[in-house]
Amino acid sequence: MPNSPLILSGKEVSLAVKAELKGRIEALAGKGIKPGLTAVLVGEDPASQVYVRSKERQSAKLGFNSNVLRLDASTSQDELLKIVEGLNKDPEVHGILVQLPLPRHIDDQLIIETIDPEKDVDGFHPVSVGKLVLGLDGFVSCTPAGILEIMKHYNIETEGKHVVVVGRSNIVGKPMANLMIQKRDLANATVTLVHTRTPDMGVHTRQADILIAAAGVPEFIGDDMVKDGAVVIDVGINRVDDATREKGYRLTGDVNYEAVLGKVSAITPVPGGVGPMTIAMLLSNTVKSAENSIK
Ligand code: GUN
Fold first, then answer.
1. Best of 40, 97, 171 to mutate for ligand 1, by most ligand atoms within 8 A of CB?
2. 152 with 192, same domain?
3. What is the pLDDT of residues 222-242, one digit of tens each?
4. pTM of the full predicted structure?
């Protein structure tokens, strides 16, 4: 039984991704192009505010033309559609990101489908999702793309492995499963996707060579659900009450990290695992879009 698992530091990998982007951003600057990313935040959801601030800060740090449109929660669907249409036409904007979730009176899917697929740096538009499923080049949803980068960086073999994905969200579970079945490097896996309607999930997760937890439930995956020597990728970022912490809460993943640590061969921590990769891949997608704009 492995007793010293490899800690997969997304923080470290994200720094490597951003370092690689710097050269490409300089090359674009030589052609008079500055990658432009505009985030749209509707309302005041605290977690969304934190994410958007971080995206703004990091893109500005890389020298992007970085903007955030902070809109009142009462913004109508029509107003938001017009704003997105305006961004579609703006040549200085290469990436458009509408932070989800949107207020209940706005149809998320309608907004996503209004974003020009050429600027869909979140990879949520049906065109992007379709390309991903078909194995065509396009924008890949940032969290799954970040997980692939972590696996690449740490030479985690996926070919012929059994990957079990927990969760079927459009943002993580579905694209992740589809990426892992592709006929190419960093894929070629046998994939099982389990979800809330799967009876006895542990039967499946215990077979995973690589277990990707994106259930959105704190510490859902315990040691009884993990095979000895498995690689565990924890996508969860959950706030749980903790009176011993200054802030009154701590961040925890979808995996009970302490419980599985003695059992796994490699694991992503929370924080510092998958989280930093999501923004790194958003920046990467925006640079790609800026490059595409001059092709
Ligand atoms: N809400 C939670 N994650 C994401 C994300 O990656 N992009 C957007 N736009 N909204 C989110």
1. 171
2. yes
3. 999 999 999 999 999 999 999
4. 0.97
